[in-house]
Amino acid sequence: MTTFNELNISKPIMKALEKMGFEEATPIQEQTIPLGMQGKDVIGQAQTGTGKTAAFGIPMIEKIDQNVKKIQGLVVAPTRELAIQVSEEIHRLGKFKGVRALPVYGGQHMDRQIRALKDGPHIVVATPGRLLDHIRRKTINISNVHTAVLDEADEMLNMGFIDDIRDILKSIPEERQTLLFSATMPKEIRDIASTLMKQPEEVKVKSKEMTVSNIAQFFVEVHEKQKFDTLTNLLDTHTPALAIIFGRTKKRVDEVTEGLHARGFRAEGIHGDLTQGKRMSVLNKFKTGKIEILVATDVAARGLDISGVTHVYNLDVPQDPESYVHRIGRTGRAGKTGEAISFITPREIPHLHLIEKVTKSKIKRLQAPSMDDARRGQQQITVEKLNDTINKKELQEYRETATELLDQYDSVTVVSAALKMLTKERRDSPVTLTSVSPVSIKGGKGGGGKKNYRGGGGGGGGDKRNNFSRKGKPAGRNRKFQNKRGSSSRNQDS
Ligand SMILES: Nc1ncnc2c1ncn2[C@@H]1O[C@H](COP(=O)(O)OP(=O)(O)OP(=O)(O)O)[C@@H](O)[C@H]1O
Ligand SMILES: [Mg+2]
Known about the structure:
Layout: E1 2-3, H1 11-20, E2 24-25, H2 27-37, E3 42-45, H3 52-63, E4 73-76, H4 80-94, E5 101-104, H5 110-118, E6 123-126, H6 128-137, E7 147-151, H7 153-158, H8 162-170, E8 177-182, H9 187-194, E9 201-204, E10 215-221, H10 227-238, E11 243-246, H11 250-262, E12 267-270, H12 276-287, E13 293-296, E14 311-314, H13 321-328, E15 338-344, H14 349-359, E16 364-365, H15 371-392, H16 399-408, H17 411-422, H18 479-488
Parallel strand pairs: 3-8, 3-9, 4-6, 4-7, 5-6, 7-8, 10-15, 10-16, 11-13, 11-14, 12-13, 14-15
Antiparallel strand pairs: 1-2
The structure holds adenosine-5'-triphosphate and magnesium ion (MG).
């Protein structure tokens, strides 16, 4: 157990860490912050939700001279939402040092971005495409950058951004420090990545599994045509506080969202075809609990840190094991628990075994719940509400009417009627989704570079200890904490 004090972190950042409620460093932080502060290039791999952002953020902020109004640190991340989130975390960490971070991403007005860039941020957190745009138009000056970070490096290289990343890094002085982080780092990608770095130190937090142990992993075997009914039965049985449902395509996400509305769920979809404004508003609604279900493509699979996500459903099994690791990693973060349930069609069972083998984790079979199970799940919520009301003991003014009712009917009838009134009635509107074809092992990713999984790809670091301690921040489901985070986080885009 290492406290941040022992890592020689400066006073203003210590103050920020205290404010954020971080008490001890996580294993990846403990191992990479000292290397980062020595100026070394680092490849850092650790499981999802174990604090990699602060692991690269802290050393980067330490090196910033806040009196120099030039971009000195650059973080590149694969999606817009992630760029915003990382920028916010850096803002929180660097606040007392006076370090300013700016997210720069596509879908935002160029003019506004250019103005914000002229304002002299110390750190820019960008998506690769938009950053290159600025570099080519000479509307960004990154010639003073001394620290560059590739967050979710494997994903960016996987997506074919390698040339873009090379071009970006070419615009930065060669004597820079380069940090590269992800929960997954297949060997091929690690080899490519290391060509961008100088004798990188590799830190892989040791663990048997690629996934954190606080995510309970299940699968249901289900035919394509039954997926939607099984999904709503599961939702009614599990009654998640916040759930993310991953679908394979944008169309799939739209159809599932519509279907969920038809059955009375508060759900919204997020994918790459939506306007940036819509993407942000959907995510904000989810973060603040205004909707309980986020239906998403893989655009939401990497890095997003939404506190209070209790369940992840893979309505369609992900194409590769890395994607599985990241998707399910949207729950079970910062030491909290979560559940991940993957829908597997009979033909996809071999693919499931491949995922188990590569991630070295056991995915347990779950019996698909029946309509009756779902109904009981919903009634259970009502019973909990009733229990709460009984415990509050503010029932005096209802007693007389209650007694009158009990003179007329037997008690089971009265309670049944009350339960019926209070329970969300299932709407069984028929929903038909357009079928997606099963994933096959040979399929690879969009026909592109097949990976050799035999080597095990490397277990994302795991902390057996998982000893997150966050002062005053309760663990487990907690909407209040969620709301607090959601509203306190500064959105520099608006
Ligand atoms: N030392 C710490 N103590 C308590 N909480 C922490 C600590 N470090 C990070 N956290 C919190 O843990 C959560 C997960 O952190 P972060 O998003 O950096 O994980 P990650 O390792 O980057 O995950 P992913 O692989 O999904 O991107 C965040 O809410 C973060 O604020
Ligand atoms: Mg991350």
